Amino acid sequence: MAPSAVDAAPSHPARPRILVPEKVSPDGLALLTPHFDVDNTTGLSADEIISKIPNYHGLIVRSETKVTAEVLQAGKKLKVVARAGVGVDNIDVPAATAQGIIVVNSPAGNIVAAAEHTVALLLATARNVGRADGTLKEGKWERSKLVGIEVGRKTLGIIGLGKVGLKVARMAKGLRMKVVAVDPYASAEIARQEGVELRPSLADILPEVDFLTIHTPLLATTLDLIGEEELKRMKKTARVLNVARGGVYNEAALLKALDEGWIAAAGLDVFSSEPPAPDSAASKLTKHPKVVATPHLGASTVEAQENVSLDVCTQVLEILRGGLPTSAVNIPIILPEEYRKLEPSVQLVEKMGRLYTQHFVGGKGGMIGGRKFELTYHGELAKMPNTKPLFAALVKGLVASISDSHVNIVNANLIAQQKAISISETFQNETKGLLYANLVTLKAHDNGDGGKEGSQQIIEGYTSDQRAYISKLDRFNANFPPEGTLIILHNYDQPGKIGGVGTVLGQHGINIRFMQVGSLDRGLAPPQEQAGNGKEGDNEALMILGVDGPLSGDVIDGLRKSEGVLDVSLVRL
Ligand SMILES: NC(=O)c1ccc[n+]([C@@H]2O[C@H](COP(=O)([O-])OP(=O)(O)OC[C@H]3O[C@@H](n4cnc5c(N)ncnc54)[C@H](O)[C@@H]3O)[C@@H](O)[C@H]2O)c1
Ligand SMILES: O=C(O)[C@H](O)COP(=O)(O)O
């Protein structure tokens, strides 16, 4: 147990206490020491943290301390857990929420550091810096074995054009690289401004790139994003980089690709377990001659550590004085006093956002960034004095399946701006002729190119008896609860379709909870003006299936191949 630079001020019984069991920059801690007893003791074991924590009101950590449910339960006085960085994978956030403990982080304090570290690995893999240094230290002078390549005029592929990805793109342009990117949710306009070619899919860029770097969060959809199949499609001279999270490249596949010469080299900062378990694929990668590896140093710069420390310590100060933080991971979208009235509609709007992203965007080459969303509240809902929670719920729903941003009422606007999502709200008090008392319409459209009107999509929903329902999806009337796993099929309205779909699902052991056919809303504008996916006609229908069971890509592929099926989406709400 090593006492560190910022030792606890002399304990004062009335002063709240904060435990900092990792190395956190003193700049932020200095904001706290005038008000609280700050105990920056590093090197504590898990048991030692559990025995100490009952006396503390705040806990500040980086990625090494595991803030488990046990730690949180022992922390009877804990009000806040702060993560001096972005990822909260080491914190049991649901357990904190259940105990009313606020978890805060610093979503942007270390993005420059992470981007610069990516460029450091890019150049290190290009010029064999790690191996050259190692052999020289062994007393060898091996110039001819260590000839590198230049990066100028080479192509860098970026997967995930978010905060870090965009910074890497700018730096790579400065190195005179051509930059192509894949991010189905990024703003095409921002990419264009940065001189980045946004491509529709991974398959488009893999054979072309000389370097590949990933900057997505680790989500169910990005786990093993790059496996054997993808690595085999790359150039034998290609180099891959990971400063995001271990697991986005399948580590066993990467090891094989390097061993068998499918690609030339890798620069890795993050691993699926840290430190890598002995004999694991991650551990073999760190020792591999074609790999330059660093022990999760992406955020480890003096400047980034100052930023994240100031960021979270400001929030800890605010929370312990009874205020609201700016980057809470688990602050509710809805405050207790509004809960009863707004909660069902908040749930509805969040589900509408999730449905939008997964049905209209996921895997279809669409974009969220740059789109304009219009939320219209009808009837009773239009009379609510505060619709901020509904606005926040839409942002949360739109980004939930693509980002680990934690949206709440305080940061919703900022996150919408960062993702180039524009949302306007319209209030229609008129109740006459309204089928449902709490109806919400979500319209999404872009400006199109060349001055033409762009595409538009509609989702409409309502609440009844505290439950949410979707009443319109694109050009189709429907009435289904947005819950669980849904398969949505766009098909020709012909006899026999239902049987065909049932056969495919039956073959895969998928249980159908409910099934509904949505019919064309003939009151809407003619199909050619609705610009959905370009396949519109007036003999089409939408089939919505609520399903249970393991759903693999094969099931969706099987359905896509069924006769008369125009499109299929898998939506998890
Ligand atoms: N190594 C380090 O020390 C370090 C430091 C900072 C951040 N990080 C990590 O870097 C990653 C990126 O951070 P950020 O702040 O830029 O996040 P961000 O949320 O700003 O950006 C993530 C981007 O990934 C995109 N995306 C999501 N799913 C995708 C998919 N399937 N295909 C393509 N794009 C997809 C999103 O649309 C978004 O634009 C995170 O995993 C973060 O934890 C690591
Ligand atoms: O999530 C993060 O902020 C980065 O991965 C950095 O983690 P660290 O604070 O442990 O360096």
UniProtKB/TrEMBL annotation:
Keyword Amino-acid biosynthesis annotated: yes
Main enzyme class: oxidoreductase
E.C. numbers: 1.1.1.95
Species classification: Eukaryota, Fungi, Dikarya, Ascomycota, Pezizomycotina
InterPro entries reported for this sequence: ACT-like_dom_sf (IPR045865), ACT_dom (IPR002912), ASB_dom_sf (IPR029009), D-isomer_2_OHA_DH_cat_dom (IPR006139), D-isomer_DH_NAD-bd (IPR006140), NAD(P)-bd_dom_sf (IPR036291), PGDH (IPR006236), PGDH_ASB_dom (IPR045626)
One GO process term, biological-process aspect: L-serine biosynthetic process
Complexes and interactors: Homotetramer.
Listed name of the protein: D-3-phosphoglycerate dehydrogenase
Superkingdom in the source lineage: Eukaryota
Gene Ontology MF, one: phosphoglycerate dehydrogenase activity
Keywords associated with the record: Acetylation, Amino-acid biosynthesis, NAD, Oxidoreductase, Phosphoprotein, Serine biosynthesis
Annotated PANTHER family: D-3-PHOSPHOGLYCERATE DEHYDROGENASE, FORMATE DEHYDROGENASE 1
The keyword Oxidoreductase belongs to this UniProt entry's keyword annotation: yes
UniProt record similarity statement: Belongs to the D-isomer specific 2-hydroxyacid dehydrogenase family.
Every ACT domain range: 486-573
Pathway linked to the protein: Amino-acid biosynthesis; L-serine biosynthesis; L-serine from 3-phospho-D-glycerate: step 1/3
Catalytic activity: (2R)-3-phosphoglycerate + NAD(+) = 3-phosphooxypyruvate + NADH + H(+)
